[in-house]
Amino acid sequence: MRRRLGSGAFATVWLAYDEQLDSPVAVKVLAENWADDGQVHRRFLEEGRYLRRVESPHVVPVYDAGELPDGRPYLVMAYADQGTLAARYDPSQPGGGTPPTPGQALAVLRQVGSGLQALHDRGVLHRDVKPANVLFRTVEGPAGGGAQVRAMLGDLGLGKALDVSSRLTMIAGTPSYVAPEQAQAESPDARADQYSLGALAYLLLSGRPAFRFTSLQQAADPAPPDPLPGQPAEVDAVVRRALARDPDDRWPDVTTFVEAVEAAVEQTAGPLDEGPTLPWLPLDPDATRAGAGPTSGGRGVTSASEEPRDPAGSRGSLRSHLDQRRTWPYAAASLVLGAVAATGAFLVARDLATERLPDLAVVADASGTLEAEVPGEWTAVSGGDGWTAPQDEAGYPALSVGTVRDWTAETSTGHGVFLALMPGSDLPDRMPGHPECDTRQAPYSESGSQPSRTVVHSGCPGGVTVERVVQVAADRLLWVQVRSLDTATANRVLDSVTTRGI
C-alpha cells in the first residue's frame, strides 16, 4: 500500500503497487461502517460488474474484484495519472486555470460522450457526469507519436445504488449538472445523462458553468441558461437543446448531440481536429504520479513505519492481502483519482475563483414524512425507521444520518442531523444544553405559521451544534439537531428540512 487517495461515505480509494507487474493500481474498498450489510456488498460489486461490461477506452476499467479478510469487497481500478477535469482547469490549483482550446474542448466532449454512449448501450446510467468525474490518463500514441492524454468517465454514482440498502431516499447528482427530473427524484433515463453532458459542454466551450445551483431544489426547476458566451447562435442552440427542461425535447441520444456540437462549431470555426498523432491535451508533468516502484529505491517508496493504515485500522493488512492475489491481467493500470470522494470540486468560470460545493444527498425517513438535504458524507451512518418519543412513549417518524456511528456523542467530532416528530402544543421554554461546547448563543425565536426556537452552540468538538424545535402542527413538534463543521453548513441543512403530510 502506498497511501490513501480519497474517501467518502461508502468507499475509500488506496494507491497500491503490484510488484510482480511493476505497476501502480487503485484499490477501492467498501467503507468499514457498511461491512455487515450483505446487500450493500452486492451493490458495491455491481459497479465493478457494470464497468467490466462496457468495452470503451473512455470508461474507467476495472481489472479485478475480491474481498479482504474482514469480508469487505474491493475493486482494482485504473490509474488516471493526469488528474481530473475539475483539477486540470482549476485556477486555485498549481498549474491550473488554463482553459481548453476549442479543439481540446471538442476532444474532451467527444471522448466523454463516447464513454457515456457506451454505458447507455449496455443499459447503464452514470447519473453524475461532472468535471470531477472526467479523469485523464496517459496512453502511448501511434508509433512515433509519443504519449497522449485520454479522457475517461469514472464513478457510476454508487450512492444512488445504495439507497435501497440504507432505507433512505437519496438523489444522486451535483446541483449544477444534474437533470431536473433526476433532482425531483424521478426515475432518470439516458436523457438525464445527456443533460449533464450538455452542462459539461457549456462549461468546456465557454469556461463558465451553465448553472450556479447550490441545492438540488434549485436544480429541480431551472430557468434556461444564458446564451453560450463566446459561441455563435448555432452552437448555443445545439447545447441549449441538450439542456431542455423536458427530456422529450432533448437530442435522441448522446452521440447525436456530440456530433451536432462538432458540426456547429466547425461550421463557423473550421475543422479543429489536431490530428491523430498529436496529443489533444498537453501532458502535465506535475500532475498526479504514482511514484517509483517499491523495489526501485525511488522517492515514491513508503517505508514500513510510514505505511498508512487501511480502513480496517490494521497496518499493512490490505497490502498483504493484495500481495497474495496476482490475478490482475494488465500491467498498465490507471487510477480513479478522487472518484469516490464525498465532496467534489468543479469549475465555475474561466477567469473567476473556483466555487467548491459538497456533493449533496436528499434523505428521508421510511415513511416519507421528514426530509433534508445534507452533504453526501453525512449518509455514512443512517436510520429512518422512527423513534419512541419520551413524552408519551408512542412511535413517531424520525431520521438520523451522520458521518460516524457516535456522531451525537458529546466528545464526538462527527457531523450529522437528527429529525424527529413528538407530541406538543407549545414550544419548550428550555432547550437542550451542550456543556462540551465553548459558547452558547441566546435562543432566538421565529413566529409565523410554524413558530420555532433555535439555539446555536459553537466551539464544540466537531465545530457547531444547533438545536431547533418547530411547531409543525397544533399537536406536533419537530426536533432538529445539526452538528457540522461550520454555521454555514448547518444553516443550509436547517433551511432544507421539510415535513410532508402534517
Question: Summed up, what is this model?
Answer:
The chain is α+β, with helices and mostly antiparallel strands and 502 residues long. It is built from twelve helices and 22 strands. The strands form six sheets. Strands 12, 15, 16, 17, 18, 19, 20 and 21 form an eight-stranded antiparallel sheet that branches. The protein has a five-stranded antiparallel sheet with strand order 1-2-3-5-4, with helices on both faces.
- At the fourth level of CATH, the homologous superfamily of the largest domain is Transferase(Phosphotransferase) domain 1
The CATH architecture category of the largest domain equals: Orthogonal Bundle
Structural class: alpha+beta
Number of helices: 12
- Assign a percent range to the helix content: 10-25%
Note the beta-strand portion.
Answer: 15-25%
* Computed Rg: 24 Å
Span of the ends, CA to CA: 52 Å
Q: How would a textbook summarize the main sheet?
A: 8 strands, antiparallel
The total number of structural domains is 3
User: Could you name the CATH class of the largest domain?
Assistant: Mainly Alpha
Question: How many distinct beta strands?
Answer: 22
Name the shape in a single word.
Answer: globular
Contiguous uncertain segments of 5+ residues: 91-96, 158-170, 291-358
Average pLDDT across residues? 75
CATH fold-type name of the largest domain: Transferase(Phosphotransferase), domain 1
